[in-house]
Amino acid sequence: MIKKVATMAVASTAISSLANRVSALENVMEEKLKGKINHSVCSWCYPIPLDDLCKAAKKIGITSIDLVDPKDFDILKKNDLYCAMVASNGPDWGITKGFNNPAHHEKLEAYFKQYIDATAKAGFKNLICFSGNRNGMDAQQGIENCTTGLKRILSYAEKKNVTLVMELLNSKVDHHDYQCDHTNWGVELCKSVGSENFKLLYDIYHMQIMEGDVIRTLKDNHQYIAHYHTGGVPGRNEIDETQELYYPAIMKAIYETGFTGYVAQEFIPKHTDKLASLKTAVHICDIS
Q1: Which of 24, 29, 38, 225 has the most beta carbons within 10 angstroms of its beta carbon?
Q2: CA distance linking residue 138 with residue 116, whole number of Å
Q3: Percent of the chain at pLDDT above 70?
Q4: Which residues, 6+ apart, have CB-to-CB distance to 39 below 8 Å?
């Protein structure tokens, strides 16, 4: 019990510190970034109210918050921020239960049509989705099943100008048995689906763990990528000199492909001043 109370006290202190940091940023002018990269940040990485994160993000020069549920779109609108990747994670599906299992297709169709409506109504474009775990399924069967399930809703997404974006995740460290865990599998699924309204979320952290060769891979497959996430390897912490990836070169490569979408910071800050870590990451990615 003593340990639990101490843990709660530490968490409360951390949240209070972040809130104070947000307050301190309120009188700071919004930064003008260089404009080659559109910057976003994933909301789940910061244990503060979404409204506070929005205010802090704007001061840093971030124009979007990732992975926001439609019920919170009003908070983004109030702060004049975009949602470059809309969240989706229902009670009957998610990372482990996705489009590769035909048993989920009926519920996924109903669920995603509602989220497509909400995304389109808000004026946003990208809606995240997942393959699900293999559970013994081979790669080709997974592609065929995902294609069947996705085609049930893609014509609807096309009419609403919404793109379904499947995230590439590592199955080595964080999401064991996840099927969409290599770029080539995701690309083959894109080819099988055959719609401009289905693309990939290339998570740099996850794909560095699974396959490396990040710059060559994203250059070779950029036409299938709608969005990027960052993260330090190893550990998924800050993207500074403490980890193995050199993000300025990666951002330069992304820019050179003609990419006009968003890059979202999705690292878990380990430093006390988490918003300072976010600001540093944005500047690392803000290439000339």
Answers
A1: 225
A2: 29
A3: 90
A4: 33, 60, 61, 62, 63, 64, 262, 263, 264, 265, 282, 285, 286
pLDDT digits (tens, 9 = 90+) for 43-102: 999 999 999 999 999 999 999 999 999 999 999 999 999 999 999 977 778 999 999 999
* CA dihedral sign, ordered 78, 68, 115, 263: positive
Distance (Å, rounded) from C-alpha 241 to C-alpha 267? 14
What's the CA gap between 205 and 224, in Å, rounded? Answer: 18
Element (H, E) at 126: strand 126-129
**Residue ranges of the alpha helices (H) in 43-138?**
50-60, 73-78, 105-122
Among 18-27, 89-98, 152-161, the range scoring the smallest mean pLDDT is 18-27
Q: What end-to-end distance do the CA atoms of the chain give, in Å?
A: 52
Mean pLDDT of the chain, nearest integer: 92
Contact 205, 161 (CB under 8 A): no
- Angle at CA of residue 147, ends 84 and 184, nearest 5°: 70
- Residue pair 65/51 in contact by the 8 Å Cβ criterion: no
**Residue 63 neighbours by CB distance under 10 Å:** 18
User: Who contacts 64 (Cβ-Cβ below 8 Å, separation ≥6)?
Assistant: 38, 39, 40, 41, 81, 82, 83, 84, 262, 264
Domains of the chain: 2-285 (3.20.20.150)
Determine the Cα–Cα distance for residues 175 and 107; give it in Å rounded to an integer. 23
Whether residue 234 is preceded by a cis peptide bond, meaning omega within 30 degrees of 0, is yes
Q: CA-based angle 266:270:273, to the nearest 5?
A: 95
Looking at the DSSP bridge assignments, the partners of residue 65 are: 41
Contacts of 226 (CB under 8 A, 6+ apart): 126, 163, 165, 199, 200, 201, 261
